[in-house]
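User: Can you help me understand a structure? I only have the sequence.
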Amino acid sequence: MEALPFFTPEIHLVLMDLEMPGIDGVKLLEYAAGKGVRRSRAIIMSAREADHLHDIFPHGRCLAVINKDDPNQQKALLQILDSVMRRQT
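Assistant: Let's start by predicting it. Here is the structure, written out as tokens:
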């Protein structure tokens, strides 16, 4: 909850969990988008299966959904993070 005031259009990447204490990832993504954060800069992580995550977050609703228990998806997350970091330098 402490991060809410920091959501601005200048954010380069938002990495959030779908299930967090005190707020759920769907509501947090909507809040961030309402503050001007581009959905294409949001990555949603969860222990739920990727198909379930894609049902909640269809194509275009965020940058990516990641099953944090899947080693292949963890590799994909690292590639995304590397790509974002390269663009910032």
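Now, to help you interpret it: Residues 71-88 form the longest helix (18 residues). The domain at 4-88 is CATH 3.40.50.2300 (Rossmann fold). Let me know which part you'd like to focus on.
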